[in-house]
Every structure is written in structure tokens, then in C-alpha cells.
């Protein structure tokens, strides 16, 4: 599978059934030409390990189910969020990196996605942590627009994922000379800019820009974020991406910044708490987003 074809699958996941099957094969086995049975076996193993009997009925080869899920639950609401963000007419101040929308299946319904901005939004700390971090009682889209937050998923693909697959994305599967997780991250930034510019032109809105001193957080499972951070540590690289005269610069020293084992943050709220190794990680020891860690990662002062 060519790089541009894979990018098209990631950025426009409802393009064609052939790209869908090839892309899924690459994500789960590192090879787009893998026998579909191998991919299905791996997906079923992940679903079984999560003890999700309802989701076990999902067949990833059913392209129409997938297309309806992504178009109805993700793409439409992502565009709604981007439009609200552009109407603010100010540079992005924060970035929250997430992994992917959550794939769900209930009773006799078709598969759907619990997306942060969707009609059936994700619940729990994935929604409450950002609201608490910004001390907001407004809806999540309004909160992110008001505080100039770019929310960027590594991919708009609601798929079953587990720790073993995340490990493979970080240390085994490669594309274009980078670990798959890093490729997904940098591609997601490019795609975010391109989608924003498309909406800007279509709606005659402000062209998105990013603050030169931007803070960011990884609100995703540490097995994904740690591999990404370690890559930039080893390569001593910053993230520096320019698309259509829009630049996103995340300096290496901020990506790899470490916490002390015990760090005082927001003295009135949290003292002597054990924190993740890296400052930009916003996940607690229970593997769920923490509003305090998110405030710490984003350097939020309210």
C-alpha cells in the first residue's frame, strides 16, 4: 500500500472498500497485503480480551456498516467542532492529542462511535477531564472553541485497540521510516490543518493559525504516548509541520519534558502526587484522563 493511499484511508476513511480493507490490514498486521483472515483473527482476539460480547458481532469487512458509522458519528460532528473553533478568529493556544473515537455496538443496532463531539458522546473522564481542566460548565465544543483548543485524534477510525497493538505501532510497524504511531501523529496534525482550511474556505471563515508558544497534552493510553515521546527523545527532534502557510511547532524540550517523581501542582488541589514520567501525559495511573494532569500538561492557569 503506497504512503499516499494509506494517508487517504486515514484522512478520508470512507473513500473506497479496497482502501478500507488494505488500511485495516496495515494497522493490525503492519502489512496491507496480509490475508484478511489474519486481521480478523487479531481483531477478534482484542475484542475477546476486552470481554465485549456485543462488539464481537462486528465484522470489519462490512464496509457499509463502517462507512455509516464514520460518516454519521464522527465526520459530521468533527466539522461542527472545527467550524465553532474557526469562528473564534484567534490562534490555537492548546492541543489535546487523543487516540481515536471509541467503537461501540449495542443490542441490534449497527456499529457506532462514542465520539467526544458526537450525538452519542463518550462519557466518563474522557469528557469530564477537559471540562474540569478549563473550569467549564459549557458544552465541550463551546469550551474548546472558547479556550482555543485543537482536539486531534491520531485517526478518525473507531477501531478495537489493545496494549499489544499499541506496542506494535510504536516498536514494530513502520511507515515512511517512522514508527506507525509517529506517522499517525504527524499525519493527524497535517490533516487537522487541511480539514480546517477546507471549512474556512467553504464557510468564508478565519484561516486557522497556531500560537508560537503552544502547550499540548497526550490524552491517550500511555502505551501509545510513551512510544511517541521516546521516538522524539531518541531522534532529538521537534515537531515542525507547515501546510498551506500554517505552521505547528512543538519543541523537542517540551515534548520530552519530564516530571519529578513527586511534583507539587496546583498546591491547593494536589500535593505530592505521583505523576507520569513525562509532563505532557494527561493519563492517571488508572489509565484514564485526569483533569489535574491535563491542566499540568497544558500549563493552564485559570
Can you give me a brief rundown of this structure?
This protein is α/β, with parallel strands linked by helices and 302 residues long. It has helices at 3-11, 17-29, 36-49, 63-86, 125-133, 140-146, 163-171, 180-203, 222-235, 252-255, 291-298; strands at 92-98, 102-104, 112-114, 149-153, 174-175, 178-179, 210-218, 239-243, 246-250, 262-265, 270-274. The chain has eleven helices and eleven strands.
Any overview of this molecule?
The chain is an alpha/beta fold and 302 residues long. It is built from eleven helices and eleven strands. It has helices at residues 3-11, 17-29, 36-49, 63-86, 125-133, 140-146, 163-171, 180-203, 222-235, 252-255, 291-298, and strands spanning 92-98, 102-104, 112-114, 149-153, 174-175, 178-179, 210-218, 239-243, 246-250, 262-265, 270-274. Strands 4-1-7 form a three-stranded parallel sheet, with helices on both faces. Strand 2 and strand 3 (112-114) form a beta hairpin. Helix 1 (3-11) crosses helix 2 and helix 4 crosses helix 8. The chain is globular and about 50 Å long.
Amino acid at each position: 500500500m503506497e504512503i499516499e493511499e494509506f494517508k487517504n484511508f486515514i484522512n478520508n476513511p470512507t473513500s473506497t472498500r479496497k482502501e478500507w480493507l488494505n488500511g485495516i490490514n496495515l494497522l493490525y498486521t503492519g502489512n496491507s497485503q496480509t490475508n484478511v483472515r489474519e486481521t480478523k483473527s487479531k481483531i477478534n482476539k482484542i475484542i475477546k480480551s476486552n470481554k465485549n460480547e456485543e462488539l464481537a458481532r462486528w465484522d470489519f469487512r462490512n464496509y457499509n456498516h463502517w462507512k455509516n458509522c464514520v460518516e454519521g458519528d464522527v465526520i459530521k460532528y468533527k466539522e461542527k467542532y472545527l467550524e465553532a473553533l474557526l469562528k473564534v478568529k484567534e490562534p490555537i493556544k492548546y492541543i489535546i492529542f487523543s487516540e481515536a473515537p471509541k467503537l461501540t455496538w449495542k443490542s441490534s443496532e449497527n456499529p457506532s462511535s462514542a465520539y467526544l463531539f458526537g450525538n452519542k458522546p463518550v462519557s466518563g473522564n474522557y469528557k469530564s477531564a477537559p471540562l474540569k481542566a478549563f473550569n467549564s460548565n459549557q458544552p465541550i465544543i463551546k469550551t474548546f472553541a472558547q479556550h482555543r483548543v485543537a482536539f486531534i485524534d491520531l485517526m478518525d477510525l473507531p477501531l478495537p485497540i489493545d496494549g499489544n497493538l499499541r506496542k506494535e505501532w510504536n516498536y514494530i510497524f513502520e511507515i515512511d521510516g517512522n514508527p506507525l504511531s509517529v506517522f499517525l501523529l504527524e499525519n493527524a496534525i497535517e490533516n487537522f490543518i487541511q480539514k480546517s482550511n477546507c471549512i474556512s474556505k467553504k464557510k468564508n471563515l478565519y484561516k486557522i493559525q497556531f500560537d508560537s508558544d503552544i502547550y499540548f497534552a497526550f490524552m491517550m493510553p500511555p502505551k501509545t504516548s510513551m512510544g511517541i515521546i521516546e521516538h522524539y527523545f531518541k531522534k532529538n527532534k521537534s515537531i515542525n509541520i507547515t501546510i498551506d502557510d500554517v505552521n505547528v511547532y512543538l519543541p523537542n524540550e517540551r515534548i520530552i519534558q519530564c516530571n519529578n517523581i513527586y511534583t507539587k501542582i496546583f498546591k491547593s488541589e494536589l500535593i505530592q502526587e505521583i505523576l507520569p514520567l513525562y509532563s505532557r501525559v494527561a493519563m492517571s495511573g488508572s489509565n484514564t484522563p485526569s483533569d489535574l494532569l491535563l491542566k499540568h500538561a497544558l500549563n493552564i492557569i485559570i
